[in-house]
Amino acid sequence: MPFRNRDWTYPLPVALLLLAPFDILASLAMDIYLPVVPEMPAALGTSATVIQLTLSLYMLMLGAGQLLFGPLSDRIGRRPVLLGGALLFAGSSLILAATSSAPLFVVFRLLQAVGASAALVATFATVRDVYAARPEGAVIYSLLGAILSFVPALGPIAGALIAGHFGWRAIFMLLGALMLTAMIAALARWHETRPETAAAGAIGIGTILRSGAFWTYTVGFSAAMGSFFVFFSTAARVLIERAGFSQMAFSLSFATSAMVMIVAARFAGRFVKRWGTAGSLARGMGLLILGAMLLGFGELCLAPSFVSFILPMWIISLGIVLTTAVTANGALADFGDRAGMAVALYFCIQSLIVACAGTVFVLALSGDTAWPLAGFCTVSAAVTLLALRRLK
């Protein structure tokens, strides 16, 4: 029986209020200061290239750090990894708000990413410990997956609003204050959930990488997350440059996809119960392909508009939610109680696939059209469906 999971008896809304802030803040910190990148070199006495590099380094460290914290959470527990990561993130954020040194900014940006990585691993490992066999698990997984998708897209909007009123340093002060608040709540209510058998020995990376189920569901997760990555990488060019949307009209249109994900996540559990893990993944990939077909039709037959670009993204958003509701359980099912390393690899591989494959589609196809999104959805969904068929 999982160690002390009997203490994790929170109602679903309370559990989400406890879990979600760590997911949100790790995602939000990726690019929330993107709108103020042009003014930061003068403030820190450095070049625009160095500031831009801190965006990439955060993404890299967020993925790589999980390879350390996954097995560490199996050995010493989820709670200390979470609290340590949250404290490091909060402290680094507050120092970032205060520093005027470019080298220190780079160092503490890396430490901020390390803290985010630890908190993210501990959060998803806890969800795995507590909800793997419970019906609420599909709702929690789909909501946390949706957060990982749309929060980085909305982050720059929040950053622009904060910086416009209070300056760019206020962005990092807010990140630090919010993480401290989440950590205080976790100190009181986040009980240890690591199973007793988890500390007995870590599962080797080779064992995980030889699992067909791990690869199938990790690639499916990458297809879902990458779809939103390509969407927010191209949406501004399609809707503002080609369709003539104002910044406010673009922001509101963009936000509708996030709202579709949030609403759909509320009902994900009943669909997973009806279709099962494999059936839900297959249907999620089918929705990605359907959305891609509608995008292609819109690009060929319609002018760029809300109807031709955003409405198909609603279909894709439904596929993202249905997919992320089952991929974590599907990828980690073979590893029982010692899932920390598998969680780390799950996120690390997903990050690499999304960053590399998503960027290739945006660069190889015209980035001011729907073709990169249509192409990525089609190819990644087809690969996932082939892997799922082979797995069966």
What can you tell me about this protein's structure?
80% of the residues lie in helices and 0% in strands. The protein has 392 residues and is mostly helical. The protein folds into two domains: 5-134 and 155-200, MFS general substrate transporter like domains (Growth Hormone, Chain: A, Up-down Bundle); 205-391, Up-down Bundle (Growth Hormone, Chain: A). Helix 10 crosses helix 11 and helix 10 (212-242) runs antiparallel to helix 15. It is globular and about 55 Å long. It starts with 11 loop residues before the first helix and ends with a helix.
CATH architecture of the largest domain: Up-down Bundle
Number of helices: 15
Query: What share of residues is helical?
Result: over 70%
Mean pLDDT: 86
Number of strands: 0
Note the beta-strand portion: under 5%
What does the largest sheet look like? none
Uncertain spans, ≥5 residues at pLDDT below 50?
A: none
Helix and strand content put the structural class at mainly alpha
Gyration radius, to the nearest Å? 20 Å
> How many angstroms does the end-to-end distance come to?
29 Å
At CATH level 3, the topology of the largest domain is Growth Hormone, Chain: A
Helix-strand sequence: HHHHHHHHHHHHHHH
Q: Which CATH C-level class of the largest domain is it?
A: Mainly Alpha
Q: What is the domain total for the residues?
A: 2
CATH superfamily of the largest domain: MFS general substrate transporter like domains
Gross morphology is: globular
